[in-house]
Amino acid sequence: MPVSLYASPPGVLFPRGSPQEWGQAARQPPGLLPAQCRAFSNNKILVELDTSSGVATMKFKSPPVNSLSLDFLTEFCISLEKLENDRACRGLIITSAVPRVFSSGLDINEMCGKSREHYAEFWRAVQEMWIRLYSSNMVTVAAINGSSPAGGCLIALTCDYRIMVENPKYIIGLNEAQLGIVAPFWFKDTFVKAVGHRVAERSLQLGLLHSVPEAHRIGLVDEVVPEEKLQEKAAAVVAQWLALPDHARQLTKSMMRKAVLDHMLAHREEDIQNFVNFISKDSIQKSLSMYMEMLKKKKS
Ligand SMILES: CCCCCCCCCCCCC/C=C/C(=O)SCCNC(=O)CCNC(=O)[C@H](O)C(C)(C)COP(=O)(O)OP(=O)(O)OC[C@H]1O[C@@H](n2cnc3c(N)ncnc32)[C@H](O)[C@@H]1OP(=O)(O)O
């Protein structure tokens, strides 16, 4: 019986809509899914569960860059809840179906020119995503097959293990400072837990985006593999972690993460107010607009 201190986090997001029911392999056209596979998907995310291994693979499929919009975050939380409540599922691999990008982080459009109410709703959804993933009973592995700045990096950091594809074009890190914004304390705490205080302090202040070898060297990613080995490696890692008794692994995970989680939960409403006040400032709105312009110019 899985044990979690945070099976039902307080203040859960009430989803707007629900995903399709699990698709039974038996109902699929022949050859589409193996017999032991179940799947569901929505506009943003595809999930396949291999019931023989108990491992689900979640693929982000929101082109062009899997940015974390309110809709994306809502679908993400619904999918996580569905898997968490499914006794057949014990492990989760998170990866991208969009070429070259794992996730470009929070959707900047959600933080520009909107009402204070919208900012509060959006930020609650960001918190919800982190709470669900950070407190998950499942073994979670990020199979990072593309660039992963800011909120994308946070998703990877929130998993139990990170494997990244070796590619000189891919970058990963918490680059908020480069946008003129600040990584909130729970982004920072999650980062510090992975790489240590000194590395995090330098990386956060400079808003660094690390190359894959550098990310490996500082402990931001645990392993680097060629693209074609990524899924195989991720499956092997999940299997290794699942070989332990669930209750021992889950309680250990809860214990290791409790302080960071409790801190966040205790300051959740205050954190929303801080975000709304910060993001509503004219100077911050200007910085974000300039950053979006810069992204668009880079293309032309
Ligand atoms: C008392 C103390 C108080 C403190 C209080 C603190 C409160 C908290 C403050 C706020 C905290 C906010 C935390 C924010 C976290 C974030 O995640 S912010 C987002 C940061 N993300 C980025 O910087 C990534 C930007 N994107 C890229 O670098 C590149 O797009 C890419 C991911 C490397 C991919 O490159 P490429 O394949 O070349 O694609 P592009 O051509 O650049 O992009 C394609 C289109 O996508 C648009 N886009 C890209 N990223 C985003 C995004 N994050 N949001 C929205 N849109 C994005 C891009 O503009 C392109 O659009 P078009 O030109 O229209 O095609």
Automatic annotation (TrEMBL):
Keyword Membrane among UniProt keywords: no
Any coiled-coil regions, as ranges: none
Subunit structure comment from the entry: Homotrimer.
Annotated GO biological process: fatty acid beta-oxidation
Species this chain originates from: Pavo cristatus (Indian peafowl)
PANTHER family, per the entry: ENOYL-COA DELTA ISOMERASE 1, MITOCHONDRIAL, ENOYL-COA HYDRATASE-RELATED
Keyword field: Acetylation, Fatty acid metabolism, Isomerase, Lipid metabolism, Mitochondrion, Transit peptide
Domain of life from the UniProt record: Eukaryota
One GO term describing the cellular component: mitochondrial matrix
UniProt xrefs under InterPro entries: ClpP/crotonase-like_dom_sf, Enoyl-CoA_hyd/isom_CS, Enoyl-CoA_hydra/iso
Protein known as: Enoyl-CoA delta isomerase 1, mitochondrial
Reaction catalyzed: a (3E)-enoyl-CoA = a 4-saturated (2E)-enoyl-CoA; (3Z)-hexenoyl-CoA = (2E)-hexenoyl-CoA; (2E)-tetradecenoyl-CoA = (3Z)-tetradecenoyl-CoA; (3Z)-decenoyl-CoA = (2E)-decenoyl-CoA
Pathway: Lipid metabolism; fatty acid beta-oxidation
Record bears the keyword rRNA-binding: no
EC numbers, comma separated: 5.3.3.8
Primary location: mitochondrion
Functional description taken from the UniProt entry: Key enzyme of fatty acid beta-oxidation. Able to isomerize both 3-cis (3Z) and 3-trans (3E) double bonds into the 2-trans (2E) form in a range of enoyl-CoA species, with a preference for (3Z)-enoyl-CoAs over (3E)-enoyl-CoAs. The catalytic efficiency of this enzyme is not affected by the fatty acyl chain length.
Subcellular location: Mitochondrion matrix
GO molecular function: delta(3)-delta(2)-enoyl-CoA isomerase activity
